[in-house]
Amino acid sequence: MKNTEQNTTKPLTLIRNFLLSCSVPLLVACESTPPPELDSSLIPESQRKVYQASLSKAKACPINLAQLVDERASKDLLVGNDNVSQDTVYAMLKQSLHSMNVSPDINSNNRVKVSLERAFVKSLGSNITATVVINVQYKPHYSDTYSPSVSYKGQSVIVNTDMKEDLQSQMANGVVEEAILRATQRIKSSLLHKCEDPTDGLDIT
Asked: How far is CA 203 from each of CA 32, 89, 105, 130, 157, rounded to the nearest angstrom?
């Protein structure tokens, strides 16, 4: 009887150890932020093509950037001893909007006013988390007025496996840039139904 219990316990112990060892990389994968092009890897295979098509359609919709302002109460964005400057954050937001086909250079009657309301970075242990809140007012080509302001949040998390101080600034910039990208993708995706035809509102006269 004793041998039978030992024989039963041993396989169970092996299975338990295997599951515990597999859980570690899974946790790390959840904490780290994948590059933008890998976002869809978190979406079920059956829905991935639909997601990519929707994102591509959102990018194709041209919108004029009528206004872009930084309205944060504090323009300092500190990570340890490093600071992500106001100019850097503004440039990141402008570039991210441009990548989603939102620019002051686009001659479209679909317009948005964008303001950066909040941006902060938290460092907890080996994790660096960035959060941004962007307010948007939208004016479609068929309207003379802008909509009430709507807030969009973007968040990104990165695991800092190398605690060298000279890498802190680079990692801070990267995690903030990713958070901004996620917010701008949400902005364009939310406006997609208002721009079914990519040529809607284009002023080609």
From this structure: 42, 30, 12, 37, 40
Domain count, the chain: 2
Return the CATH number at 104.
3.30.160.150
- Contact present, 52 and 183 (Cβ < 8 Å): no
pLDDT tens profile 44-59? 666 667 666 767 777 8
* CA 115 to mean position of chain CA atoms: 16
pTM score of the predicted model: 0.70
Same domain, 37 and 120: yes
Residue 202 lies in a domain: no
Same domain membership, residue 125 and residue 104: yes
DSSP assignment of 2-23 equals: HHHHHHHHHHHHHHHHHHHHHH
User: For the chain, percent helix, then strand, then coil, each to nearest 5?
Assistant: 45, 25, 25
- 76 and 15, same structural domain? no
Hey, is 111 helix, strand or coil?
Answer: strand
Q: Is residue 204 part of a domain?
A: no
Q: What is the mean pLDDT of residues 3-28?
A: 43
What is the C-alpha separation between 114 and 96, in angstroms, rounded? 12
